[in-house]
Amino acid sequence: MSRLPIILASTALLVFGIGWWSIDRVGKAVDRQQGEPTRAEAPVELPAPGPEPAPGARSPDPPAPPKPEEPIYTEGPQTRDGTGKYYMGREIAFVMGHQAINWLERSNREDEEAPSKAIAALALKPTDVIADIGAGSGYYTFRMAPLVPRGKVVAVDIQPEMIEFLENKEKKLGFNNVEAHLGEVDDTKLPAESIDAALMVDAYHEFSHPREMMQSLFRALRPGGRIILLEYRAEDPTVPIKPLHKMTEAQARREMEVVGLKWQATHDFLPWQHFMVFVKP
Ligand SMILES: C[S@@+](CC[C@H](N)C(=O)[O-])C[C@H]1O[C@@H](n2cnc3c(N)ncnc32)[C@H](O)[C@@H]1O
User: Could you tell me if the CB of 87 is within 6 A of ligand 1?
Assistant: First the structure.
């Protein structure tokens, strides 16, 4: 029997099968290319054309990093009577404790400092409201009170013992226009625009937070109101007071002006102290 038909049929089947498999593989490869674009085929966004840099031009500097805020207070060497806390280059003195009331009330104070001349130079009006900041025992408070019969003296201090002393003294002397007022180290606690003037005698240099205190006092002043600052003259070595309890006029001006006060005058008619006047514009 001839095997030829069987061989021919097998060969035809083999050729047909190989052809079909090849067509299917190529078709799938084409499908893959067309249906799933590769990364390289995804649309590319081109940057917008910019101006041509000038020949030799430097590329612009990167923006400067923001400057860190200067601290208001810094620490430094702690000298005798000092806190080691510095403000605008000045070391802040320690607060004088209420135990020193007798020194504030000393009988020879008029001879040494002439407080009566300082009070006369304030030229107070009978209706004035004046704050005595760092009033202590009220040496100045009770000498100003008779001059403002239709106004008042607000005596501000941070030591409750001083406040108690002031209240007892007011009763003893029979005044009704003195208000003892407890403040905080960084806040006078006076209402805004409530005073015509403020007096600070031998107190400012020991404020532990002078910037905040002066900002608070600035708010409490009426526009046009005055601050009168009495500090022992640091320029004068013959003034017998410890160095940290004295101030130069230049330093005092810097510290008042930084909160927005305007210097008006400095008078040196007192034996030991500068009499400096600043105004709230
Ligand atoms: C050396 S005494 C002067 C008292 C008064 N001015 C005199 O000349 O008789 C300073 C006073 O300032 C007060 N004092 C200190 N820091 C203060 C602040 N932040 N606010 C108010 N008074 C302050 C002290 O408690 C102290 O009674």
Answer: no
